[in-house]
Write a structure and sequence with these properties.
2 helices, about 75% helix
């Protein structure tokens, strides 16, 4: 049942309630009003859930993007290590770019 149909049926119900004897009318009108309020609360809850799901989807997309970038970077660094297993990067002093020694 879509929103327009719900509102139409609720209006028909209220019209039928108006035709009832006074004693039953107020109680049933209160129930119809409560139904309308609960329907609005449910709609608001559904909207809120949809927003939360959209936010979660976006977060997951960013996490997947970051994971893929990390995997690419990891593969690149592994390839660099395989090319020079000692990590020297072509420097004879063990990878220290400023010439090795004690730093003086």
């Amino acid at each position: 049942m879509n929103e327009a149909e719900f509102q139409k049926r609720l209006a028909e119900l209220v019209a039928e309630i108006d035709a009832l004897p006074e004693g039953e009318r107020e109680r049933l009108k209160a129930l119809a009003a409560e139904t309308r309020d609960r329907h609005e609360q449910i709609k608001q809850s559904v909207r809120s859930l949809q927003e939360s799901i959209d936010f979660l989807r976006l977060g997951i997309k960013y996490m997947i993007f970051d994971l893929e970038a990390t995997r690419r970077e990891n593969a690149y660094l592994r390839k660099m290590l395989e090319q020079d297993p000692n990590g020297n990067n072509g420097n004879p002093d063990g990878g220290n770019p400023d010439g090795g020694g004690n730093g003086f």
